[in-house]
Amino acid sequence: MTGLDAKHRQVGIYLRTRTTLVFLLLVALLLAAFAIGLVHGSTKMALSTVWHAMLHPAGGISSVIVWQIRFPRLVAAALVGAGLAVSGAVMQALLQNPLADPYVVGASSGAGLGAVVAETFVPGMALVAPAAFLGALAAVFLAWMLARARSRSPMLTLLLAGYALSVLFSAISTYLMLQNQRSLTTIFAWELGGIHGITWSAVGVAACIMAASALMLIPYLKTMNALLLGDDVAHGVGVAVRRSQFVLLLSASLFTAAAVYLSGLIGFVGLVIPHLVRRLSGPEHERVIPFSFLVGATFMVLADTVAERLPPLGTVPIGLITAFIGGPYFLYVLARPGGRRFF
């Protein structure tokens, strides 16, 4: 028995060491992605120039470019990628559905409707992002209230309610856009996704929302492992299923809404990144969540850098980059042998 305990301790030490090394590697990759993004913006700058500007915030035009344009944009991109990836991992565990993503319960259409309403009725007031944030939250909680009305299969009802609300909100948005065609260009650009003109104040708002969401999520990491086994099993091991589902849905919704607030609608990140992370780390959410945060942030920073300098087009919406990368990868995962075994 003593030998078995010693072996278990060795395995535990190995897993903890491996997890720590992977975490540090992902942090290093994120820092490298930031360095690439600071150098390769719409206009390339030498690394020495960027480094001097970082050390001297009041040092001239290069400092303004680095501190007021590129750095907040890259931080916003990292927050968007991290938020969508974490939200996707939570939604997939919550709904026990590998095809779930941050927008599956109507957040996307709710955000779109909020943006259309803001641009239609109060144009020029820079309310598109805040209205989209509120629209995403409103759609998710409306779906949740509809799901709670049924005592059986609430998560399936949540999924179906989200789909029905998506169709309804999209129809309303389309009608308002056709009635007010002057707002079509603004809304279309927003729905393609983009991180431009970001200020530190907007980054601060999103960061605070995500920090609050993370504090809600951390105590439920092990709970998500149990929820993957089904509601009955989770209840049998002492999980307060309904309360846990509500907290997790609230956390995922806040992550999504904060990302929408910064960037508009960006697809595939929350769907693909958690699958990629599980292939590297296994299904335990104590590793899946922090690794998804780092991988999602790194991916979005690099995608934003590519979107800023995509030859021969120049700057393109970041949503196009994520779709071109995420779509083929997800099709590959589905097509390969055993590709449906996500968890």
Shape: globular
Main β-sheet description:
none
Per CATH, what is the topology? ABC transporter involved in vitamin B12 uptake, BtuC
Continuous helix count: 14
- The name of the CATH superfamily reads ABC transporter involved in vitamin B12 uptake, BtuC
Order of helices and strands: HHHHHHHHHHHHHH
Features:
single chain, mainly alpha, 14 helices, ABC transporter involved in vitamin B12 uptake, BtuC, 343 residues
Which secondary structure elements does this structure contain, and how are they paired or packed?
Elements: H1 2-39, H2 47-55, H3 61-95, H4 107-121, H5 128-148, H6 154-179, H7 184-192, H8 200-217, H9 221-227, H10 231-236, H11 241-263, H12 269-281, H13 285-308, H14 318-335
Helix pairs in contact: 1-13, 2-3, 3-8, 3-11, 3-12, 3-13, 4-5, 4-6, 4-7, 5-6, 5-11, 8-11, 12-13, 13-14
Mind explaining what this structure looks like?
This protein has one domain (2-335): ABC transporter involved in vitamin B12 uptake, BtuC (Orthogonal Bundle). The chain is 76% helix and 0% strand. The mean pLDDT is 83. By secondary structure, the chain is mainly α. It starts with a helix and ends in an 8-residue tail after the last helix. The protein has helices at 2-39, 47-55, 61-95, 107-121, 128-148, 154-179, 184-192, 200-217, 221-227, 231-236, 241-263, 269-281, 285-308, 318-335.
In brief:
This protein is an all-alpha fold and 343 residues long. It is built from 14 helices and no strands.
